[in-house]
Amino acid sequence: MPTTVAALNILVFLLPGFLSDRIIVSLNAPRERSDLVFVIDALVFAFVDYVIYSFAAAHLKLPAIPIQVSANGAEFLPGQSASLALLLAIAAVVGLIWAKISDAGWLYKLLKYLHVTRVTGRVDVWHDIFTDFRGYWFQVRLKDGTRITGWPDYFSDNPAKREVFLREALIESPDGRDYDLEGPGVLLTERAEIERIEILNKETDHVGREKTTD
């Protein structure tokens, strides 16, 4: 807990940034961050939140600083409730917008188009493949020689795991026998020991039928 008034004011200032960052983290693939990076991210988003708030507050004639903590406690300024509600809304909207931009990779696509960078901004190649090739059938080859072809509905976004759920799966055993799975699909966990994944033709399933995307 903060032990000084200055530290408490810094914490209050960072709260909108923490909210924006929390929304972004909840809606995107998890990434490992140190405590220092976490605080820096919150500080950056708090700055963005307050810049937007300052323009809105000037237009709506609201206090420039919604709340100020002094040695005597919090100073409640006129219009504080509306100011705090506006700042909360701005922090939430900033978090939602940035979460969408980050998940869709729009910023990195623009930077790649401008030849500024070649990175995608996603967690790793596993996440790149399953994100960019939506609408394709995948054929997964296991270490024991089994081949499973299906429609990838779900996949893990944690770099520490490699799991995928294939719907409408066709399973081909190493001895040449094959069968359609009776059920919604098959979940391949890390124990399945995936050796490689092949991406098949778009919009066509494993028996040549046309496939409509979800």
Q: Could you walk me through the main structural features you see in this protein, from its secondary elements to its overall organization?
A:
- There is one protein chain.
- It contains five helices and eight strands.
- Strands 3, 4, 5, 6, 7 and 8 form a six-stranded antiparallel β-sheet that branches. A two-stranded antiparallel ribbon has the order 1-2.
- Helix 1 (5-27) runs parallel beside helix 3 (80-104).
- It has 214 residues and is an alpha+beta fold.
- 42% of the residues lie in helices and 23% in strands.
Keywords:
23% strand, six-stranded antiparallel sheet, 8 strands, 214 residues, alpha+beta, two-stranded antiparallel sheet
Structural class: alpha+beta
Radius of gyration of CA atoms, rounded to a whole number: 24 Å
**Percent helix range:** 40-55%
Mean pLDDT score: 83
How many helices?
5
Q: How many angstroms separate the termini?
A: 48 Å
Taken as a percent bin, the fraction of beta residues is 15-25%
Oligomer: single chain
Q: How many strands in all?
A: 8
Order of helices and strands: HHEEHHHEEEEEE
Uncertain stretches: none
Largest sheet: 6 strands, antiparallel
Q: What overall form do the CA principal axes indicate?
A: elongated
